[in-house]
Amino acid sequence: MSNAKKAVVLVSGGLDSTTVLAMARDQGYACYALSFDYGQRHRGELVAAERVSSALGDVEHKVVRLNLDSIGGSALTDVSIAVPEEETTGIPVTYVPARNTVFLAIALGWAEVLEAQDIFIGVNAVDYSGYPDCRPAFVSAFEAMANLATKAGVEGRKINIHAPLMAMNKGAIIRAGQELGVDYSLTVSCYQVTDDGLACGRCDSCRLRRQGFESAGVPDLTRYR
């Protein structure tokens, strides 16, 4: 592994990012997991991120602290905005303004320090909540920007943004993770998970997760309230 290519992998502790970490490792990358304590209301995801990063053999797991709650604008960062428990149309209030742009920018900085040319993110444009920063056009645009804005890019060491789940539904993601030995009981997907890891079972993220396990024909080991 000492001679393996390095990759920064965004790890939230959820189902998607955990699968992406397993994929990157399976492709032979030395994985540097990156999580964010960004003022989110659900602290249980950071505990899950540490669990899955350790279980999947990362080289290092870094948690960067941000204060996105200082600007609010999302049910995930402002406790005065309720997390919806019914299906909604359009971009939901759980969208955190510019979150993936901010996260990828910091991942890009760490990648430069590590001399890594690959960044993995678990965005998905099939079974997702309508977030604009989960689309192929966003990933392509960020990759183009990354190669214009960095010393690595200017010197010809191309930065690659990998989004291997982009065209996969939740069932396919779970099946792929199962083949790679992912233990999904370690993960948390709920928007309002308790500090001890109990999911609400009612939010949009819980619904998509449950449907995914049903579609994959895999037992759902999620601990619900």
TrEMBL record:
Signal peptide: none annotated. Belongs to the QueC family. It catalyses: 7-carboxy-7-carbaguanine + NH4(+) + 2 ATP = 7-cyano-7-carbaguanine + 2 AMP + 2 diphosphate + 2 H(+). Its EC number is 6.3.4.20. ATP binds at residues 11-21. Catalyzes the ATP-dependent conversion of 7-carboxy-7-deazaguanine (CDG) to 7-cyano-7-deazaguanine (preQ(0)). HAMAP family: QueC. The gene is queC. The lineage of its organism: Bacteria, Pseudomonadati, Pseudomonadota, Gammaproteobacteria, Cellvibrionales. It comes from Candidatus Marimicrobium litorale. Pathway: Purine metabolism; 7-cyano-7-deazaguanine biosynthesis. This is 7-cyano-7-deazaguanine synthase. PANTHER family: 7-CYANO-7-DEAZAGUANINE SYNTHASE.
